[in-house]
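To whoever is on call:

I kicked off a structure prediction for a single chain this morning and the downstream step that reads the tokens threw a length-mismatch warning. I double-checked the sequence; it's 487 residues and nothing unusual in it as far as I can see. Pasting both halves so you can look.
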Amino acid sequence: MTEVRVRIAPSPSGNLHIGTARTALFNYLFAKKNNGKFILRIEDTDAERTSQAYIDNIFDSLKALGLNWDEGPDVGGPYGPYTQSERFDIYPKYAQMLLDKGFAYECFCTPEELEAEKQLATQNKKPYVYSKKCENLTEEEKAKLRAEGRKPAIRFNIAKAQKAFHEGTILKFDDLVKGELHMDTSLLGDFVIMKSNGTPTYNFAVVIDDMLMKISHVIRGEDHISNTFKQILIFEALGAEVPRFGHLGMILAPDRSKLSKRHGATAVSEFVEKGYLTEALINFVALLGWSPSDGQEIKSIDEIAKDFRIGDISSSNSIFEYDKLNWMNSHYIKMLSIDELKERLKPYLTKYDLTELTDEQYTRMVEITYEPLTLLSDITDAVPYFFGEDVEIDPKAQADVLDTDVAQDVLKEFLRQAEAWEFTEENLHEKLEAFRAEYKEKGIKPKVTMWAIRAAVTGRTCGADMTAILAILGKDKVFRRVKKAIK
């Protein structure tokens, strides 16, 4: 194969997992690095678990991450259809080809007979391998079984394929990530490639699809390694060129267990809903098992693609460090322009009436509150005091600050003096500085003075720049809140 062609082939039985997104990313990067094609194929043969909502989620999540495919169900291409359920008429032809070549045979065993074989293997403390009892059935025996109403499955003949293309029973291949891998294929057993109901199994359908779509490299998780040995033999039995394989280590949680919902978000859409920027997410995921050559971790997807080297991917498992992702996301938030940030924050401000603020006030609110944001969604809890007439006072702020005699005196004096103030930031900064100085002369620390005003106006004792808050809220709203805080 001269052209690099890679694919991501998710099963739409759930939202796109971050691990699948990492696999998609490495395929995408490999294609871009080698001027190849990145293909999306939907493997929806499990009708009971497949959902259009999950298919839509896969599309939306990959697009959000910037992983746009060259060929796929929605954009088409020369080797479609790109949805497996639309390809069912293709597989029987190749199953028959394997039957004709002697690399497959019909199996009439019932589920009960197979279960009995498995139980016997368990009793003998041996790994289960199919007995091959149907391998040499005569045509008369097959006709008799069919007359009983049995419909055969089709099994791949491991031993015949191994003998035809390799010496002994050891099959080896050079993995792009892990180096040489090998397996004794006599341990695999003759596996089903076509079920008795006429549907293909995963290991068969994926080979046919990869063969017909001219996939040159298969980059996927290491949980597929055992499947790879089976698939190589099918490729060879069909007389097809075997693609290069590369297997990625798993993504583990910080406690080294399998990443799951108990650790936090696991689906791309969940991360987005929580307020992670897709630019930060894709940058972070790229570093799970791979490092930039210059050591600079903050990179765009195009910069990563230029530097990407599949041979440098670690063969070990990667740890999904939420703290590092949060740091990176905070960094990316700070890189956004205020205008872009204003738009990106709006989905997380729907509980508030933004029409209460002019565009100028909204802009200023974002300018004074975005600095500490780790997630875009943090804005929801950072700004409630900018909206509504009243403000909810934090119980600790009420008890420790507003209920003190000092705070009550500060608030009364603030009302008296601020009546004549112009509520612009420049003027407020000057007036508040002088106001703090007056109380400092009385032995009251400036921060204690400001705590009283902040608690009355925002319900909190910490937060954004106070002069900007007062200017945005305006004199009338500030005075109403302060008066309400005075006993």
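Update from on-call: the warning came from a stale cache, not from the record. Cleared it. Sanity check on the structure: The mean pLDDT is 95.
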